Amino acid sequence: MYRSKYHSKKVTIDGETFDSIKEYRRWCELKLLEKAGKIICLDRQVKFILVPAQYETFPRYSEKTGKRLKDGKRCVEKEVAYYADFVYQDAETGRRTVEDTKGMRTEKYIIKRKLMLYLHNIKIQEV
Known about the structure:
Blueprint: E1 11-13, E2 16-18, H1 21-35, E3 39-51, E4 54-61, E5 68-77, E6 80-90, E7 96-100, H2 107-120, E8 125-126
Parallel strand pairs: 7-8
Antiparallel strand pairs: 1-2, 3-6, 4-5, 6-7
């Protein structure tokens, strides 16, 4: 079993890996709510792009003939993404909820939370 620097234990159950036991327990609660018809469209680890990858083009030439080829493209900065623990909709209102099971609020997480609100107008519900 893997232990992070914040002492959470990864847990794998039925082929699904969760970052912590707390996250697994919340998943079980949400599955029950879905089964009872209270929520719909329950999903895990939903990716939200916060900053897209940055690319640059560069000239390319044939090694044999020296002729100019189509420009190449290389990544100079990887994308920044936030992975929501859970995303679901209220069955009655249709309101979408983005949820994160938190133990420790790191600086990195706080910045991503703020970017989610600013860029996507999504306020993350912390459990």
